[in-house]
Amino acid sequence: MESELPVRSSRDGHDVPDTEMPDVASPSPAGRSPSPSPKRQHPIGWSLQDEEYESDPEDDSVKDTEDQDGTGSDDVVQEDDDDALGQLRYWLESNYKDSLFACGGAVPIVSEAESPSSKETPSSPASQASSTTAPSTAPHPPVTLRWDPRDSSTPAGHCRLTVPIDEATSDHLDRLLADMQPATFGLGGEDMYDENYRKASKLDPSKFATNFCPYNVGIIDVVSQLLLPNPASGKQRAIKAELYKLNVYTGPSGHFRAHVDTPRSRSQFGSLVVCFPVKHEGGALEVRHEDQALTFDWASCANSDAPQIQWAAFYSDCEHEVFPVQSGHRITLTYNLYVTFGNGQLSGRPNALDTTQTPLYRHLEAVINDDTFLPDGGYLGFYTTHAYPQTASQPSQGCLTDILKGLDMAIWHAFQRLGCGVCLRPVLVSDPFEIKPRAFKVGKEFAFRNFHSQVEDYREWEWMLNRWGPEEISWSDLIWLNEANLKTKHASFAYTAYGNEASSEIAYSLCAIIIGVPKWHGGERMRLETTFIDKGGEEKDWEHETPYDLDN
Ligand SMILES: O=C(O)CCC(=O)C(=O)O
Ligand SMILES: [Fe+2]
């Protein structure tokens, strides 16, 4: 949960004026069928050219479909908001803001004597089945924390705190606080300490141990199902939760101002905060995505007689904030959440999502199964609704499709399931010369570059873009399903601009899913031979190659 401050606007320093935002593109007058270029250009990973289809038995008739009546596909298609594409766009626009970006829950604490783990007969399937409520999280015995004292002469027994705190050992909390350090935050790659932004104490995981494990009580199962669901057909993603810090926010002014956590590696997709039942007031955690906010206020429960461990998990790109603690101590564990593969450490409950049983799928299916929609095949674009760590130290490391979140993941898998080609591409949104129309450009790779180039005019800018690596697809060949959201932009490259004086500038890109829709033939869409082969590293064989450095 390394973090960056201040909030979004300064996360990447610059704002691209809204005027550069393209409309949802209707690339041709007819709106749905880009005018075919003499020789169709295509993203390098896969194409929609004839030789790329799985089989082409009646080749002649395939060609016939291109323009049988000589009218051209543009004439067939009418722009109409009531059609399948219009409905899909409307559905995306009205639904994507509701998609889940955070979740939370509570685990009851029971005394050792009541704890199921201390009984001879743990809850059997039969006893669960007879329960009238949905299986809830297994209760947890009191939580113990042990830590290394600063002063090595302190007896080990004094460096132990049990939560809920019992009267007899309440002074141990003071010892814990005395053995902790001020909590810093990350700013521009540096560790900063500034109580205006964050006032809290921390212990690194190497300095303490606990009997609490988020896997054992099912928290990771729940997070996995809600924030990282697996399409039944896809690779099985699992979560690796890495303990990051023990934190205490103390009243009257402990807090953490609005920030976005810096992903510790490209496989990190989220963070988990676990709060122990220790008396405090205030200190609510608010998590935001777009114009939505979820508040996790753990104070009242921490003060109640039914102690619970409360938790919240959220995607890494969500801004969040810990409001001031007015009194008492808000004690938390934080975890970094990474995508991993295989069985992970889930407790065995399957979490496969049937992509075809979602309203989204039905909308996409209606578009793809419409024979008047892109009868000759074509390209759709979808700006991701979340931000991803786009820049890689090696250009060959692509943006990770495996950590796609929420709606982005659903779109990716649904289009794949419908036989379309999908790939992730950066979309450059900076254009110092504001050449219209469509200043945006689709690129090939996600990698931050430093161009030691001086750009004085449009020609030099274009020359630099060629080094950045524009994709072989022109803007007019893309039909966009949603509007660009500039809040998710990332720095893409640095260069020197020459106006009256030289200045260092950053160009920004968004992340987009580019979808190749195969052509219509013989009453159905043809099958692409390869859905995608991407030199950006999207389709590596993760089973034989460790995808990420998880231990950095
Ligand atoms: O304690 C919390 O609720 C959140 C803490 C946080 O944002 C962080 O450690 O980065
Ligand atoms: Fe944070």
From TrEMBL:
UniProt xrefs under InterPro entries: Oxoglu/Fe-dep_dioxygenase_dom, Pro_4_hyd_alph_FE2OG_OXY
Superkingdom in the source lineage: Eukaryota
Chain positions covered by the region annotation Disordered: 1-82, 112-158
Pfam families the UniProt entry points to: 2OG-FeII_Oxy_3
Annotated ranges, domain Fe2OG dioxygenase: 240-339
Biased composition range(s): Low complexity: 112-137
Biased composition (Acidic residues): 49-59
PANTHER family from the UniProt entry: FE2OG DIOXYGENASE DOMAIN-CONTAINING PROTEIN, MYND-TYPE DOMAIN-CONTAINING PROTEIN
Descriptive protein name: Fe2OG dioxygenase domain-containing protein
